[in-house]
Amino acid sequence: MINIKDEIMLATDARTRAYSPHSGYTVGAALRCKNGKRYYGCNIENQGIQSICAERTAFAKAISEGEREFDCIVVIGGPKDKAPEQCLPCGYCRQFMSEFVDKDFKIYTVYDKKVEEYSIEELLPYGFKL
Fold this sequence. Notes:
Layout: H1 5-15, E1 25-33, E2 38-42, H2 54-64, E3 70-79, H3 91-98, E4 106-111, E5 114-119, H4 120-123
Parallel strand pairs: 3-4
Antiparallel strand pairs: 1-2, 1-3, 4-5
């Protein structure tokens, strides 16, 4: 496992910025590019179905800055003001990320003093491809 200490701190901080008045579920994500740059994001809800997940927020920030090569992402989430629980990207985020990463891209979730590591291929074995 690679060192993700900085990403854990960034994701934890990003989680405090989540806007989740409807679900109360807060998520922070920290994305590391292959060049070492980091981008973070939080979930942003609204009353409709167009809410934005923390993972896509981080990717959108990076992509809009010209980044195209990604190393890993750390995702930390759970009910507001509670300890993190196992929190993995939703199906929409998995498909979105798969557009920009190779099959070995790592996804980490941190909770209960544990760090779990997955590849995008493990979490999205049959992703849509044209």
